[in-house]
Amino acid sequence: MTDTQQEMNLWDVCKSIINGCANGIKLLWSLLAAMLRLTYRKWWLVLVFIIAGASAAMYYTRKSNLRYKVSAIVCLNGPTINEVQQRFEALNQNFSADVISSQNKGAMLGISPEKAAALSRFRTFRIIDCMHNGTADYIDWKGRNSGTDTLNVRMEDRLALQFQTKDPENLPEVAEAIITYMNNSQLLQASFSTYKEHAARQQLFDKQQIEKLDSLTTFFYRNADAQQIQTPSVNMAMGKKQIVLFLKDIERFFRDKQVRDHRYILCTAPVSLQGEFIADAAPVNSRLKFILLLSLIGWLAGCLAAYLLEQRTAIVAFLRSKPS
Length: 324
Description:
By secondary structure, the protein is of the alpha+beta class. It has three domains: 64 residues, no CATH class; 136 residues, Alpha-Beta Plaits, CATH 3.30.70; 72 residues. Helices cover 62% and strands 12% of the residues. It has eleven helices and six strands. Strands 1, 2, 3, 4, 5 and 6 form a six-stranded antiparallel β-sheet that branches. Helix 1 packs across helix 2, helix 2 runs antiparallel to helix 10 and helix 7 packs antiparallel against helix 9. The two termini are 48 Å apart.
């Protein structure tokens, strides 16, 4: 290290960070105090901006403009996550474009233009399986789960769909139209047909394996020597262990077959609902939240206007001055 370089230990780093935070707090306090003084001196001007912000919030959160989040979990029978995401999020591009009329949006889903105009913000979220048992544990709403996480695994056959609506009363009809739109895709239908055939072959395979194990158990038990079965011996103990082993295999196949049979029964379409679409009780643009937010913005704008009003003489002089 040269003489011009200076060493900095951990204490100096912590001291610099603390001094920086303290200076930042002092600056914020000075700015807040200046804004409070401006509010006191020009209260009438600041009040006008606050009232304007609150009025804008009241208009934005009127009853006809309230938006509710609607979400549901769907089961993917064959299609991949990317295929379903592209199909569903295509609605977000079409419904957010102003060049597409409400009539065309309604025709896309097979609903009336008025109901289609109330829909917006179509999004998808991954489902997380924490126990590695094929059960959906929670929805990754914030997208924080990494695809390389081996503890909390993303499910490949479950997906959460979400959109916003201004008319939750028509939710059943809109939900049915969205699922129908998803299942009308030729790409998803092709994946579903392949999945359906594979599931049918898997059912047949499970049945054959159970019959084979059952026949092996019966064969071993009935062909055992009668004296071995009646007389306690080592051979009889070994025979019982062999029989129990086959029975456990049969039970395991039965459990797997039950899960696959259940999936096969639910496998009626490429995308099937696991439950139903549920709307949040509280709207996204709640009145109280936006009144507070826009009133705060109005106060800041009022303070800025008050500062410019007080400095109008200096501003006019600066504008009239000639460059040197």
